[in-house]
Give the backbone structure.
Amino acid sequence: MKSAVAASGRDVNDDYVVLGRISGIYGVQGWVKVYSETRVREDILGYDEWLLRRPGGWQKVQRIDGRMQGEGVIARLEGVNDRDAARALIGTEIAVPRRELPPAASGEYYWSDLEGLKVVNLDGVELGIVSHLFETGANDVLVVKGERERLIPFTRDAVKDVDLQSRTLRVDWDAEF
């Protein structure tokens, strides 16, 4: 079965994929709360070097420590030693080099690989471009933006072909729906 897996992150260019963002502070010693966009939340902790999108561009930072805390992820970053330094990072995107992501299994795709693909139905009608995806619990959903927004389930019944080379996704979906 085709599925979208692992990092749902967005390509920021050909080299980096966004896996999450710093969403808050934790404690007084510089720990940050992390909103992870990886399929398994703690998978973001599998990368020791993060790239943070700062006003001046991407900044490399070492992740010194990290763990699950309740249902969320927290991390401690090199050079972030107090609450004020952590607070200054809230909203900062976290990326990793694309080359560090494991290859997707056959028939599986990273969300970032699907975003931006042209969506065409079986009748050849162009429905729009994949804007982003989201999870529903039952399956992932493609958000396709064209003359109007369409929500198309990323399932075997709906998605018939993904051609990353031609940047096209073929779907069994009525253009009127």
Summary: Residues 115-171 form a domain with the SH3 type barrels. fold (CATH 2.30.30.240). The chain is about 5% helix and 50% strand.
